Amino acid sequence: MTTRDEARYGSPDSDASAGPGSDAPTRSDSDASAGPGSDAPTRSDSDASAGPGSDAPTSLGSRGFETLCVHGNNALRDAYGAIATPIYQTATFAHHQLPVNDSTDASLARSTGFDYSRGENPTREQLEWRIADLEGADIGVALSSGMAAISALFALLKPGDQVVASGDLYGGTNRLFNQLLARNGVQFYYATSTEGIIQAIERARASAADRLRFVFVETPTNPMMQVFDIAALSDAAHAAGALLAVDNTFLTPCFQRPLSLGADIVVHSGSKYLGGHNDTIAGLLAIRAPGIEVSLDENGYLRRSSLNDSERLPEQLRFMQLSTGAALAPFDSFLLLRGIKTLPLRMERAQQSALRIARFLESHPRVRSVLYTGLPSHPDHALSLRQASGFGATLSFYLADKSSVSPLFERIRIIQFAESLGGTESLLTYPLTQTHADVPPEQRDALGISECLVRLSVGVESCDDLLADLEQALA
Ligand SMILES: Cc1ncc(COP(=O)(O)O)c(C=O)c1O
């Protein structure tokens, strides 16, 4: 038995990281730049602590981020040398047969380690290791949607438990918190700035109840693009005995690694940038839990030791995955693994275009203002530069006049009018009636989700085409 890092990176007397795709570990050779004239931070200008792609040693081990996206850090040795992860499209797994005279009660010991795909599946486990590698986590858990991932986390709470969260949240998360969990007795407190969240944490800490369990933020938020100081929130949460969970859907570990800034849990809608092609729904959790023991099985699969310490978060989340039945299917796990291989290429490319488009919109007479952390006009631009190595490729903007909204959606040709974000296709979304339709009107008004607000997810099409599309649609 060995710990995760030894198995991934090799201990002095171990060759555990050998196997297909494990040719000499290399540092990132990325010199990806954000393009001429861009002031987007690039991997090559990120400083030693700034996260992925840095040449200085990081918790990524010795492999560069791009290498991890393609190969991960574990030691899968497929029996036939398959380069792509096989899709184990099976509901159940035969146990090794017992010798006829074997009188021992060895039925469990004869399991291959995979029994039933709701509980464990080799394709899904590869994905779970991959997201753990990318986020610098010890454990990954893959679920059937982003909402299933968030639900699994919050299903750990009991009536009377308290949560402090960012006020601006994806509409589905808002619905889960306020229409389901709050009715079951979980108490939510919201704030829209780092200081506001810290004050709410301190109030919870000072209260007689002392039941603060989670601090939960999206950063940047959907759709208002607010940014929270992850390191400051993690200090405040930990001082109050709570855990910090960050929804990292918008930036992905390509640009932001919350665990390296002190967070405990990362949440993803894998349906967005990680899957990356607008063709699947998935959710992921990545959890910091040092000391988890792993081993390599006879087929070269990295396996967790049996997780039976029910006090620990990874065990509890695996228990939720098994018990609520929302585990990600093998084919969707494969699609996520495939999407992740090109994550850095897509993110860099889409970000270059997003910056150009944000500047174009900012100077357009029909646009009142643009919310994009890559613009110096964004109030959290400096914080974004400090804690992330990129700004992502989703932005929101206010049209100057309500009467421009319908024509814009009617006239776009290449950009599609659809909800979601993070895929190869650019999408224009109307939060008021789509993603945030279920948020109560007074809350939407307070956040600024108005009739004039539009969200744009920039894809990987030709940026000139996207600009031309917007120009004619706004004419
Ligand atoms: C920031 C964020 N988190 C979570 C979710 C929920 O993810 P899913 O649609 O995969 O359930 C979304 C969906 O848009 C999102 O934007």
The ordered string of helix (H) and strand (E) elements is EHHHEHEHEHEHEHEEEEHHHEHEHEEHEH
What would you call the structural class? alpha/beta
Total helical segments? 15
Query: Helix amount, in percent?
Result: 25-40%
* Largest sheet report: 7 strands, mixed
Q: Strand order across the biggest sheet?
A: 2-8-7-6-5-3-4
Low-confidence region ranges: 5-59
From the spread of the alpha carbons, the general shape counts as globular
Write structural notes for this entry.
This protein is α/β, with parallel strands linked by helices and 475 residues long. The strands form three sheets. It has a seven-stranded mixed β-sheet, sandwiched between helices. Strands 11-12-15-14-13 form a five-stranded mixed β-sheet, with helices on one face. Helix 13 crosses helix 15. 32% of the residues lie in helices and 14% in strands. The chain has two domains: 220 residues, Aspartate Aminotransferase, domain 2, CATH 3.40.640.10; 132 residues, Aspartate Aminotransferase, domain 1. Helix 8 links the parallel strand 6 and strand 7. The site of pyridoxal-5'-phosphate (PLP) has 14 residues, from helix 4 and helix 5.
Write the layout of secondary structure elements.
Layout: E1 2-3, H1 4-9, H2 65-71, H3 122-135, E2 139-143, H4 146-154, E3 162-166, H5 171-181, E4 187-191, H6 194-206, E5 212-218, H7 230-239, E6 243-247, H8 252-255, E7 265-269, E8 283-287, E9 293-296, E10 302-304, H9 313-324, H10 330-341, H11 343-362, E11 367-371, H12 381-387, E12 394-399, H13 405-411, E13 416-417, E14 427-429, H14 441-447, E15 453-457, H15 463-474
